[in-house]
């Protein structure tokens, strides 16, 4: 089953409410308020900082960003 993390801008509480009322009961969707305090001003290509910068741009630009989550791997022995 695909899972998604939705991060919503703290400046958009109405969007947070709308998303929670629409997707709040869906087990595969987790909705969080952006908790970051200040953006970082530098990134190195291909790093965690670059990924976070892309998320920040999405949150600031459209008010939210949807991040597909890696499915957990099940091992059988």
Entry keywords:
3-stranded mixed sheet, alpha+beta, about 80 residues
What overall form do the CA principal axes indicate? Answer: flat
- Multimeric organization: single chain
- Structural class of the secondary elements? alpha+beta
Strand content: 15-25%
Tally of separate domains = 1
What is the arithmetic mean of pLDDT? 80
What is the H/E string?
Answer: EHEHE
Radius of gyration: 15 Å
Characterize the largest beta sheet: strand count, sense, and whether it forms a barrel: 3 strands, mixed
Can you tell me the residue ranges where pLDDT is under 50 for at least 5 consecutive residues?
Answer: none
Helical stretch tally: 2
- How would you write the strand order of the largest sheet? 2-1-3
Q: Percent helix among the residues?
A: 25-40%
Number of distinct beta strands: 3
Task: Give the termini separation.
Answer: 22 Å
